[in-house]
Amino acid sequence: MLLNKLGEFGLIDRIRKTIKTDASVLKGIGDDCAVIRYDRRTCMLLTQDMLVEGVDFTRRDDPRLVGRKALAVSISDIAACAGLPRYALVSMGIPRAAAAAYIDEVYRGMRALAREYGINIVGGDISRAPVLTIDVSLTGFVEKKRLVLRGGARPGDMIFVSGRLGGTRQGKHLRFTPRVAEARFLAEQYRLHAMIDISDGLAQDLGHIARASNTGAVLFEKLIPFSAQARGLDDALSGGEDFELLFTVSARDGRMIIKRSPSRFFPVGTITEKRYGLKIIDGNGGERVLRISGYRHF
Amino acid sequence: MLLNKLGEFGLIDRIRKTIKTDASVLKGIGDDCAVIRYDRRTCMLLTQDMLVEGVDFTRRDDPRLVGRKALAVSISDIAACAGLPRYALVSMGIPRAAAAAYIDEVYRGMRALAREYGINIVGGDISRAPVLTIDVSLTGFVEKKRLVLRGGARPGDMIFVSGRLGGTRQGKHLRFTPRVAEARFLAEQYRLHAMIDISDGLAQDLGHIARASNTGAVLFEKLIPFSAQARGLDDALSGGEDFELLFTVSARDGRMIIKRSPSRFFPVGTITEKRYGLKIIDGNGGERVLRISGYRHF
């Protein structure tokens, strides 16, 4: 079987099934971060993301923004678990003909973002590769009581996003702000049931939450906040790489969030029983199945 | 400037100079692992290695051995700091036309080695790439009192290697045993002054120890243990990817090691004052400068 039949998530599932972990691993493959027991009060978070030229960025993109994105996507994963990022390792596969000045700029962009988020770049590797390939691993920490994963959503929860969606192909994917401060604020003020960062698109990432939580979900089309660059509903649902937080809380906490932070967090729907499936309700009250069509690597 | 002018180590130096870290980072870029303060007695070790098809392995190599190597090189870095490996993240850039069965085999090789060394594979990433690209990050731990780095060698130290060198191009580079048990044994029994794993070749990695320790060193050609596949002295000195430990101890500890473990650890030379430089003495007592010519990526 070729990978384009199996797909990225099929492959990840296949791998996950074969892997056993010991009791120190509170969460292994299949969430935004791996969660490791650190001490009585703290969990260690581990995440890693690979960016490849021609897939995640192009040679014409500003190299500083490329470096920035390579670190930002991992920061976003730590944010999705309500953690604080601390240590980064950076591997780079570099074409032989690359200019040192170009690579300097990539590091410059990464370093500036690292400084902004209090992250130490502590090591990594350099190799040769046919196209620029950047793989960043990031270690973070979160208080055990504030840890949020994908699997805690409950029927009746309100579903929120942390910002406007869509339009990422117009350059936003290189400039997004990882939502660490927002996630920390939410985890301190409310009881988050489930959280994920929107990397594959609202529809697909909501599907990840629903699947992990064994629930269904319904979105209200009219509630979905569009970014200025969004090219319609499909873009906001499936464009991917928004890197906003998608989270669920009890209806009680939800009402508080709407009241206190009306322009920071946007309610977009409700978690339902599993048998309801994944649905979206349009402006006229018409209900249809939420089509999941995020980015496919293969 | 193109990278082939600057070179891999030039580039790493350039990056290192621009990066600042906070007080929790005991050692950042420039050793086998980054060393992070964990608790009063323990350090956390972080390392990451990227393997690229056509550079570190070929499409004709057994995929299980490719997966094995991708993890083994990072285990070897943890061993070089006398640590125990614990958590791995695996990023894979996969060509679109790859067969799922091939990728399964790569994971199988990695998984088998992980099990052998008590390592949890807890996450990672999958992307598309022009050639198979595997980047593994590994977290380990070491008691603070047993931590060994490159920079602790002292004039008068004896220099040892943990096994026979050379012949890695004949397939050994895919099958080597990371020397975790040996490193732990040494760190428990002796006072290791400096240690590194031989990835770039004995000459170059001894150069790394000498530079970090601000010393010189002399090797005795007749003492260098050749592997059965080695094609002469140059291969043993500069072939690279032996992944044996290279370490220094006081002459007193050195004599004990020779007496107790004659066929496990091989003395190959002595650490000298810096002004002596790096030398090798041949079978007839002739001294010459140790030529450093390990593998170059660019």
Radius of gyration of chain A: 19 Å
Q: What is the distance, rounded to the nearest whole angstrom, between the alpha carbons of the first and last residues of chain A?
A: 12 Å
Q: Give the overall average pLDDT of chain A.
A: 94
The appropriate CATH architecture of the largest domain in chain A is Alpha-Beta Complex
The residue ranges of chain A in which pLDDT falls below 50 over 5 or more consecutive positions are none
Layout of strands and helices, then pairs:
Two copies of one chain form a homodimer.
Chain A: H1 3-18, E1 25-27, E2 34-37, E3 42-52, H2 63-80, E4 84-94, H3 100-116, E5 120-128, E6 133-143, E7 158-161, H4 180-189, E8 194-197, H5 202-213, E9 216-220, H6 233-238, E10 245-249, H7 251-260, E11 266-272, E12 278-281, E13 287-289
Parallel strand pairs in A: 4-5, 9-12
Antiparallel strand pairs in A: 1-2, 2-3, 3-6, 4-6, 7-10, 7-11, 8-10, 9-11, 12-13
Helix pairs in contact in A: 2-3, 2-4
Description:
The structure is a homodimer of 298-residue chains. Chain A has 298 residues and is of the alpha+beta class. Chain A folds into 2 domains: 31-145, 60s Ribosomal Protein L30, Chain: A; 148-289, Phosphoribosyl-aminoimidazole Synthetase, Chain A, domain 2. Chain A is 30% helix and 27% strand. Chain A has helices at residues 3-18, 63-80, 100-116, 180-189, 202-213, 233-238, 251-260, and strands at 25-27, 34-37, 42-52, 84-94, 120-128, 133-143, 158-161, 194-197, 216-220, 245-249, 266-272, 278-281, 287-289. Chain A has a 7-stranded mixed sheet, with helices on both faces. The first copy, chain A, has a 6-stranded mixed sheet with strand order 1-2-3-6-4-5, with helices on one face. In chain A, β4 (84-94), α3 and β5 form a beta-alpha-beta unit. In chain A, α2 (63-80) packs parallel to α3 (100-116) and α2 (63-80) packs parallel to α4 (180-189). The two termini of chain A are 12 Å apart. The mean pLDDT of chain A is 94. At the A-B interface, α1, β3, β4, α3 and β5 of A face α1, β3, β4, α3 and β5 of B.
